[in-house]
């Protein structure tokens, strides 16, 4: 795959919050040092999810009679013998080489309990690495083909106008999701997000096949991804628009689901270890290692990631804690750079969550949205609607969403997750989404260039607010850098939630790498993404594309 285009649809309005460039640079430098410390720690470790991801990308598929994925079975075989620190790949390659080279046949044998991948004769290290490199190249070629197909579709069809209109479907049944997704696309949606079944982030395996019985959402499976991708391609062709598909690669199977998304041409994926640590109590060692590898996959696949800082304001006050959102965005940016993601693939999250009873709350929201756009001019920022202060009063809710949409278009956001007037009542129905899409299109069209017509008072409330949030974020970043991110999380610096290095779900799935650890997919991705061994990411890799 040669040089490819990345989406550069975000408009940066001429209106500015007049922030000091020196302070932005200093904040970014502090975040870079924090990310360096984290990277040094996680580069020494692997996880069961990383190893399962490698197997999936090398062709391992299927489940046993009880629904346990074969990738889990193979990794568990190696983990139980205390050898996972060398990487599962070498044992898989030895088994494959000595059973005729048929991946499907080997998977069937393991699923039936007739094969243990540790039981095969050891091959010379050079042969293992040569075979692994060859298999990794084939895996990346499959991902590259999907990225090329996306780019071809975007060149031929309309890709939407920023802010992209993002709505959710969440029926629990993939086939009903398809019906609702088609309707939303016809009503003007640019991105369809399939909400994941409640609790899937805490499953240490990926369910298999098409599913029809999720809770509060639909299980993220590779077959479900394939079904929805085909449906959106079909409706997109009839509309003359490319409809982007979003799902979640977070939780205990973060890199596995990232790989599934890359293979089935998802376009946007929620991908944020800090969210998992704070809101799902996933062990920070486990999920930060998983995040690093999953983001390499996303980077190579051209998938825009969404981060979850917007959730901080659901547990903490939007006025008092706005600086924690900005500090986390800056840290997330630097961690993303170290996995090869360019700014154009960083859907950094923030939210419109002021208490509507606050005087001039709209001014504060607008100031913070413009501040984020000024600090991250190349990123397709993901702007989230009001949820915390939605009461079930649909009339006030519709007005709150209208103000949110006005700020979104005036501040040049990249991705606008539309609010629903029935928030706090039920999962959105088809007509709820239609009203939300109609209102957003009306406001976006009527205020498309509002941000280019305004200048803000250098001594006014909005500029003062943006400068205050930046100052407080810089102070927080200095503090986090001095104590380290792990300790800062333990002290509850983000979202008023405390977690520790040894607590949380999934810790038993973390292993220290041995000196001869082998992961051919990581090696291939690092080479393709031009990452050095130190993961240095101090300079933003803007929309450079990928050479493979």
Automatic annotation (TrEMBL):
Signal peptide stretch: none
Domain D-Lysine 5,6-aminomutase alpha subunit: 20-523
Name of a matching Pfam family: Lys-AminoMut_A
Domain of life: Bacteria
GO molecular function, one term: cobalamin binding
InterPro entries, alphabetized: Cbl-dep_enz_cat, Lys-AminoMut_A, Lys-AminoMut_asu_sf
Protein name in UniProt: D-lysine 5,6-aminomutase subunit alpha
